[in-house]
Design a protein that fits this description.
about 120 residues; about 20% helix; alpha+beta; 3 helices; two-stranded antiparallel ribbon
């Protein structure tokens, strides 16, 4: 009793500790356009054959939004023009990349109401 007041029962402290592994940050899914094709490339494959953003930009004249990098995935697109996609696929294969194993294209031919996103597994 202190000054005529009796202390009630004490409540235990609650301490919460969270451990976050920052060595493997979570990648955000990349949005894909429904209006034109997008080429998806594994980042390790892109780097293995010494491709650079500058090489792709010089060939295609891309904006920042048309070359996206997140985690282990690179998305190039939407690719407009009749030969942009086929020219880029041929360039990837000449560089030594293998279709489906290292890169893949999505047509961009789906309804506007459907939003698709890509990320590595």
């Amino acid at each position: 009793m202190v000054g005529g007041y009796t202390a009630g029962p004490t409540r235990p402290s609650i301490v919460t500790t969270a451990v976050v592994d920052i060595s493997h940050p979570t990648a955000m899914p990349l949005p894909l356009s429904h209006t034109a094709p997008t080429l998806l490339i594994r980042r390790t494959a892109f780097e293995r054959v010494h491709l650079t953003r500058q090489i792709i930009d010089e060939a295609l004249g891309l904006t920042d939004e048309e070359f996206l990098l997140e985690g282990g995935l690179i998305a190039i697109g939407p690719l407009v023009g009749e030969s942009a996609l086929t020219d880029l696929i041929e360039a990837m294969e000449r560089a030594g990349l293998v279709y489906f194993e290292d890169f893949f294209e999505l047509s961009g031919n789906w309804p506007e109401w459907l939003g698709l996103f890509a990320m590595t597994s």
